[in-house]
Design goal:
mainly alpha; 4 helices; 2 strands
Length: 101
């Protein structure tokens, strides 16, 4: 008797989106470096975290994006929401927001 693997236990391949829908409706390429650079700059301006922590936060953002948008392109607002959630779990949201305002 041949057993079949439970489909729920099979690993899903999760890919990053290829694009982002801007607020004006145009589509632009999804670029990791934009997220990494923005987090690094916010950390430096606010003093809330250094470049090493910005790299960790970037990876957390990418993981969340893979989970939430496995087959679609997020809007800029949805991507900002993911970034805000990651920063808030770090306790750095208010510092980073004040640095980007």
């Amino acid at each position: 008797m041949e057993s079949q693997a439970n489909p729920a236990l099979k690993s899903r391949k999760l890919f990053l989106p290829t694009g982002i829908v801007q607020r004006d409706g145009t589509r632009v390429a999804f670029e990791i470096r934009h997220i990494a650079n923005a987090l690094s700059a916010a950390g430096q301006r606010s003093g809330a975290f250094d470049d090493e922590e910005a790299c960790v936060l970037t990876q957390r953002v990418l993981h969340a994006v893979r989970q939430r948008f496995p087959a679609s392109e997020p809007t800029a607002g949805e991507l900002q929401h993911v970034i805000d959630e990651v920063l808030s779990t770090r306790g750095a949201l208010s510092s980073a927001r004040s640095a980007t305002a």
